Amino acid sequence: MGQEKYGIGLDIGTTKIVVMIGRKNEYGKIEILGIGKARSLGVHRGVVSNITQTIQSIQQAVQEAENNSGKRVDEVVVGIAGQHIRSLQHSDYITRPNSDEVIDELDVERLCNQVYKLVMLPGEEIIHVLPQEFKLDGQSEIKEPVGMYGGRLEANFHVVVGQVSSIRNIGRCVKSSGLELAGITLEPLASSNAVLSQEEKEAGVALIDIGGGTTDLAIFKDGIIRHTAVIPFGGNVITDDIKEGCSIIEKQAELLKIKFGSAWPGENKDNEIVSIPGLRGREPKEITLKNLSKIIHARAVEIIEQVYMEIKNYGHEEQKKKLIAGIVLTGGGSQLKHLKQLVEYITGMDTRIGYPNEHLAGDSDPEVASPVYATAVGLVMNALDRQSRFVAEEQNTEEHNQQEELSRKPTDEPETISKPKKERKSFLEKWSDRVKDFLDNAE
Question: Is the whole-model pTM more than 0.85?
Answer without folding.
Answer: yes
